[in-house]
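Milestone M4 deliverable, item 7.
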Amino acid sequence: MPNQSASTYPKAVLFDLLTALLDSWTLWNRAAGSEAAGRTWRAEYLRLTYNRGAYVPYEELVRQAALQTGLDESAARTLEAQWLQLAPWSGARDSLRKLAPHCKLGIVTNCSDRLGRQAADLFDIDWDVIVTAENAGFYKPDPRPYQRALDRLNMNADDAAFVAGSSYDMFGTAKLGLRTYWHNRVGLDLVDGAQPPEIEAPTFDALLPWLRQFGSSKASKEDSAQ
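Output delivered:
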């Protein structure tokens, strides 16, 4: 059981999985045959999922995005066949290891249960909660996947933080008041209308210092409101 009293960390840190923690871009590029084709395909997939709302099979959206960007549907089959070759971003495992003694750790991902759990298992972490779009019934940034994770942890949004991989996440986290760190490893643009995160960084270097100040920042806001 994490020792909350000894730190100023939030009670929980939730992570996007396939963009914030894992380098899915390299896998998509390889399945597409080139970096340009992979980036275009991945961007279309992100657009489809984040505009979808209610869940439809993840694998179908991946296939649809491939076809809409001029790829053969065999690219989607290749992506799934190589799924376990997903690699954590540098710094991801170390950040999780350092956070584990201080707070609960969870995943909120736009994925099927099967592929989401396979990807989560690439980390040697006893996740406290894993919410996929399939088990939530909705794709992010609908607030329900994030809220489902909070409910399963029995905590409020102001007791947790979220680490995003795409600025689409900020639509959902802003609705819940979930403070957000954007791990923007590949230099994505902020999506029109998305609320900027508290921190945007290309690495995890600033994550733990930001999280360590979480509790004291919350206490200061509570004191000023009194």
